[in-house]
Amino acid sequence: MEDMNADQGLLVATGVRKTYRTGSVEVTALLDLDLVVCHGEMVAVTGPSGSGKTTLLNCLSGLDDIDAGRVEVDGHDLFAMSDAARTEHRARTMGFVFQAFNLIPVFSAVENVELPLLLVGTRPREARRRALEMLDRVGLGHRVEHRPSEMSGGEQQRVTIARALAGRPAIVWADEPTGNLDSAMADQVMDLLCELNRDEGQTIVLVTHDSAIGARVPRLIRMRDGRLVDDVGQTVRARAPIPDVPMG
Ligand SMILES: Nc1ncnc2c1ncn2[C@@H]1O[C@H](COP(=O)(O)OP(=O)(O)O)[C@@H](O)[C@H]1O
Ligand SMILES: [Mg+2]
To answer: Would you say residue 238 lies in a domain?
Structure first.
């Protein structure tokens, strides 16, 4: 079962539509969007401001609802489950990195990284061990007791990457992860994300308005007005979906 899902794509989105309604104004931010991302791929989604990149990330990760279509992650239909099941599925299969680091200011680096592990029931000793290992992995083994305010922006973003990866998620979503960083720190963060994909096969979907950042990523997708207009360099081909037949 696992292998069949792997061949069909880790993320399979079909006909996804999202319309925001504010008073009498409607904005269709995603228009019948289809996307397959396979295990081990790193994908950058670029496009101008307002083209729907953040909406794509929020809808395909199940952080936000959709108006039509279907999204499967790791073999599970996100919008066929209850909100509670979706939240649980997200905690177990997805990691997130945002432009604003969203670290807890009174927690040290290691406490920030272990928190999501503790929330899914990992034993404290194991959570601490794993958090320290991940901080070491992102080059912050010497900063584990520092609070966010005692670290540079680049270091804080590396803490969030350690936090996103600590639970060994199937997929990591990153929304403008370098948006708050100067170019040297942005390069470091991109180097780290590319390395995690290349060396460890971490599946990553990154959205950015910065085409120079997009150009560093193996597969580059461009969006305009809620549609995918270009998709170059797909690294792993998805097999045609296997029809739903009852098992046994
Ligand atoms: N919460 C919201 N309510 C109403 N409109 C929204 C909301 N979020 C985004 N939009 C609109 O949807 C479109 C896509 O936005 P977004 O996904 O944030 O684009 P991007 O991340 O590419 O800049 C834009 O026209 C934006 O104004
Ligand atoms: Mg955005």
So the answer is: no
Among positive and negative, which fits the CA dihedral 89, 170, 203, 119? positive
243 in a domain, yes or no? no
End-to-end CA, the chain: 13
Residue nearest to atom 1 of ligand 1 (CA): 20
Q: pTM (2 decimals)? A: 0.91
Q: Which ligand is nearest to the CA of 33?
A: 1
Tens digits of residue pLDDT in 74-107: 999 999 999 999 999 999 999 999 999 999 999 9
Count the domains in the chain: 1
Position 127 in a domain? yes
Answer yes or no: is pLDDT of 192 > 80.
Answer: yes
Inside any domain, residue 17: no
Is the C-alpha dihedral spanning 188, 42, 87, 60 positive or negative?
positive
Ligand 1 nearest-atom number relative to CA 226: 14
CATH of the domain at 208: 3.40.50.300
How does DSSP classify residue 79? G
52 lines ligand 1 (CB under 6 A): yes
Nearest to 116 by CA among 154, 157, 165, 186: 165
> Is the Cβ atom of 60 under 6 angstroms away from ligand 1?
no
What range defines the domain where residue 131 resides? Answer: 40-63+83-232
Which atom of ligand 1 is least distant from the CA of 209? 22
Specify the residue with its C-alpha closest to ligand 1, atom 3.
20
For the segment 12-40, what is each residue's pLDDT rounded down to a tens digit? 999 999 999 999 999 999 999 999 999 99
